[in-house]
Amino acid sequence: MRTPLLCPTDLLNLDLSSRTYIVTGGNSGIGLVTVEQLAKQGAHVVLACRRVEEGQQKAKELLSQKLRGTIEVSKLDLADLNSVRAFAKHFLENHTSLHGLVNNAGVMNTTFQRTKDGFEMQFGTNHLGHYLLTELLLPLIKKSAPSRIVCVSSCFHDKAMGYEGRIDFEDLNFEKRKYNGWVAYGQSKLANLLHAKQLARRLTGTGVTTASVHPGWVRTNLIHHSMPRWVQDKVLRPFFKLGGMIEPWEGAQSTLYALLSPEAADHNGAFFSQTGIYRNPKANRGGWPLKSPNPQANDETIAEKLDEVSRKLVGLGS
Ligand SMILES: NC(=O)c1ccc[n+]([C@@H]2O[C@H](COP(=O)([O-])OP(=O)(O)OC[C@H]3O[C@@H](n4cnc5c(N)ncnc54)[C@H](OP(=O)(O)O)[C@@H]3O)[C@@H](O)[C@H]2O)c1
């Protein structure tokens, strides 16, 4: 079992008061820990979630610890582009700065489903919803520079349960090919990594830096489309732990490092990985940053093309 990478203590004691962050999927797992840590350091954090009551309950529990910062809960359903537009409009009307956007929310290995706008659920939620969100918030993120955008990807962008991560531009939404939940997850997580890389290129010189991360194999709710949560948490936990599964606190370390460390800004657009499982075992111990072993992840033309296609799909024209 490999030791997880942890942020230096200094970083987790930085004063973030007067800084504003958005964390998508902030009501659960890695996102929830990220919200808690940023608020502990004094930030104002918008916990963006699709289940507002659940988010409010979680925010109440966190705030009862008397954190230095503040938490605001706001409705965001990434599987519905109207909800993304409404969230962004509400945020922009009520805030004057945004220092960090954490595109964290995600679903994994779902059955074949479509988002409200007709996209395959994992590509639509994990990538396209975040793509539109980022574009709508970008003017304020630029105005707030130095600022950061972190896209939570996965080592499954490289290889997900034996399937190579690949963007299939001929059939992004599984209209022609047979659906496979792991292939769709791998495609969406490769899109997250490429999104961060292409943003870094587009935003050069603006003071906005970007990163993608693999948080590790983390004990969260993400598993629930593949097995009941109690099987992971009770029956298989000791075996999974031996295999490298870590706790949400450890899973949030790569995000926090990519979001807060000055060194991460020197690697604009890079991929920061907790321990993982890659096609190249040398990559398994992770790295902040780590060069992905997937050739598509390092191909600028694919990143550019994905940017163009995504822009059109979310209705922002060319
Ligand atoms: N756990 C791992 O081993 C692992 C490994 C690699 C990468 N990741 C990535 O880490 C990120 C966080 O996942 P997690 O492990 O913390 O899992 P999690 O506990 O299931 O959290 C996922 C979050 O995404 C939210 N979400 C799902 N669909 C959404 C939608 N349509 N609109 C808005 N929010 C939505 C969930 O909301 P609900 O609570 O309403 O479902 C939840 O808050 C994901 O991007 C995942 O791909 C996780």
Highlighted features:
318 residues, alpha/beta, Rossmann fold, seven-stranded parallel sheet, two-stranded antiparallel ribbon, 11 helices, globular, binds NADP nicotinamide-adenine-dinucleotide phosphate
Structure description:
With 318 residues, this protein is an alpha/beta fold. It has a single domain, classed as 3-Layer(aba) Sandwich (Rossmann fold). The protein contains 11 helices and 9 strands. The chain has helices at 29-40, 52-63, 81-94, 121-143, 181-202, 229-235, 237-242, 248-251, 253-260, 262-265, 300-313, and strands at 20-24, 44-49, 70-75, 100-103, 147-152, 159-160, 163-164, 208-214, 271-273. The chain has a 7-stranded parallel sheet with strand order 3-2-1-4-5-8-9, sandwiched between helices. A two-stranded antiparallel ribbon has the order 6-7. Strand 1 (20-24), helix 1 and strand 2 (44-49) form a beta-alpha-beta unit. Helix 3 (81-94) runs parallel beside helix 4 (121-143), helix 4 (121-143) packs parallel to helix 5 (181-202) and helix 5 packs across helix 11 (300-313). The longest helix has 23 residues, at 121-143. The chain is globular. The N and C termini lie far apart (47 Å). The model has no long low-confidence stretch (mean pLDDT 96). NADP nicotinamide-adenine-dinucleotide phosphate binds at residues 24-25, 27-31, 49-51, 76-79, 104-108, 125, 152, 154, 214-215, 217-218, 220-222. NADP nicotinamide-adenine-dinucleotide phosphate binds next to helix 1.
